Amino acid sequence: MTVAVTREAALETLESGRRKIEALLARLTPAQMLAPGIGGGEWSPKDLLGHLALWQEIALRTITEFRRAERPWIAGVFSTPGPGPNDDELAARAPWSFDRALEAYSRSWAELVRSLRDLHDSEWLAPADGEDALGELLGVVLGKEELPFGHAFAHIPDLESFVEERATTH
């Protein structure tokens, strides 16, 4: 699936992406947080937070399933053609307030970082889906092409454009 990455490097990549997302969001007004214009023009910054929270939650589910000696659900999703969880979950999250989306993002972020730090090296390196190590699978869940654990970086260019077009100086 992906190149092996250490937990330390994974945490650094995740933290770097989080800092960049939060710095960009800090430049927006509350009304701008709800305005569409990201992700092909349909998502608001609130929707982006819901999307990022979703994948953090999927990573947490993956760790839980791995620890129960189950094949992680997301490995099956990745191995079969068809839509992933994005569309249905994002539609369910669309009515959320900005505060609820931010809370889901922040809560799942804190739990994810704690869970990654708590993993033993043997867990990180153990096969999670019959082939790839847990760390590799998590790198895909939380990553983007060519950058394991860099999911935020897949959305930063769109968010930067959105912010530059709308941001006010606070």
Give structural notes.
It is a single chain. The protein is mainly α. The protein has one domain: Four Helix Bundle (Hemerythrin (Met), subunit A) (Up-down Bundle), CATH 1.20.120.450. It has 8 helices and no strands. It is globular, with a radius of gyration of 16 Å.
How large is the radius of gyration? Answer: 16 Å
- CATH fold name, please? Four Helix Bundle (Hemerythrin (Met), subunit A)
Q: Helicity, in percent?
A: 55-70%
> Which structural class should the secondary elements be placed in?
mainly alpha
% residues in beta strands: under 5%
What string gives the helices and strands in order? HHHHHHHH
The CATH architecture designation is Up-down Bundle
Low-confidence stretches: none
Q: Using DSSP, what is the number of strands?
A: 0
Q: What distance lies between the first and last C-alpha atoms, to the nearest angstrom?
A: 42 Å
Tally of DSSP helical segments: 8
CATH superfamily: dinb family like domain
Shape: globular
Map the helices and strands.
Blueprint: H1 7-25, H2 45-67, H3 73-79, H4 86-93, H5 98-118, H6 121-125, H7 134-141, H8 151-166
